[in-house]
Specification:
The chain is mainly α. 89% of the residues lie in helices and 0% in strands.
């Protein structure tokens, strides 16, 4: 029983850390986008913006895969 509590707490911590990383990426992207919209766009800035968007999209995809894997494991475990 104690092992389940520790495992659950660890999973929640990982979810929280992952959410923090996602929020930070999204915040950085929004700052760059706002900066980009407030002035003329240079080619390097556009590349940075595209890079952040790509990282956010990859992170979202990985999070969805992890969630799917977790749900599969959860349903296959005996209660």
């Amino acid at each position: 029983m104690a092992t389940k509590a520790v495992t659950h707490a660890t999973e929640e911590q990982h979810d929280y850390v992952s959410r923090q990383k996602y929020d930070q990426l999204l915040d950085d992207y929004n700052k760059l986008k706002a900066k980009d919209e407030s002035r003329s766009v240079s080619e390097p800035d556009q590349n940075v913006l595209a890079s952040y968007l790509d990282r956010i999209n990859r992170f979202e995809h990985l999070m969805k895969e992890l969630q799917g894997d977790f749900l599969e494991m959860k349903t296959s475990m005996p209660i």
